[in-house]
Structures are given as structure tokens and as C-alpha cells.
TrEMBL record:
Protein name: YrhK-like protein
Alphabetic keyword roster: Membrane, Transmembrane, Transmembrane helix
Chain ranges of the YrhK domain: 22-76
A matching Pfam family: YrhK
Organism (species): Marinomonas rhizomae
Residue ranges crossing the lipid bilayer per the database entry: 26-47, 59-83
Keyword Transmembrane helix: yes
Length: 88
């Protein structure tokens, strides 16, 4: 549902939009899960002096994946926008 000039407009771009959007949402959820795993394991590694360096690298990997989050969202918006243009 989109509002324009105070009115609601229904735009139907078909099931393909839903499929594409859910795939990006699943990818984003998987990315979030991996970030949480890297930070959790890295936190436990900091409890053991011999694993501190490995824990630091896990934090670096998790931080790099934080950059991926907005990239996934932007790609999703562009892809769904392109589907909308094709359907219009």
C-alpha cells in the first residue's frame, strides 16, 4: 500500500516481488545470525589468553559483516524497484 496525495494506492507487481523480497530478508537474517555467532565466539575466546588473537579476528570478521547489512538492503531496494518498473 502506497500513499500519494493523501490517498492510498494499490500497486500489484505480482508474486515475484514477494519472492525476491523474502530472499533478501532471509539473506539479511542469515547475515545477522553469522554476526552474532562471530561476536559470541570471539567473546568467549577473550576469556582464554591463548585465544585472544583469534577472538580479535572474529570481531574483525563480525564488524566487516556489519558493512554487508546495508549493502544487502540497498541491493534489495534496487532489485525490487527494477521489478516495479518492469511491471508498470
Amino acid at each position: 500500500m502506497i500513499k500519494a496525495n493523501g490517498r492510498e494506492l494499490d500497486i500489484d507487481i505480482g508474486n515475484q516481488h514477494i519472492v525476491v523480497q523474502r530472499r533478501y530478508e532471509a539473506l539479511g537474517a542469515f547475515n545477522d545470525l553469522m554476526i552474532a555467532i562471530w561476536f559470541l565466539i570471539g567473546s568467549f575466546f577473550f576469556l582464554n589468553d591463548s585465544l585472544v588473537e583469534s577472538g580479535t579476528w572474529l570481531f574483525v570478521v563480525g564488524s566487516a559483516q556489519l558493512i554487508i547489512k546495508p549493502i544487502i538492503k540497498l541491493i534489495s531496494l534496487v532489485h525490487v524497484g527494477a521489478l516495479h518498473k518492469v511491471a508498470a
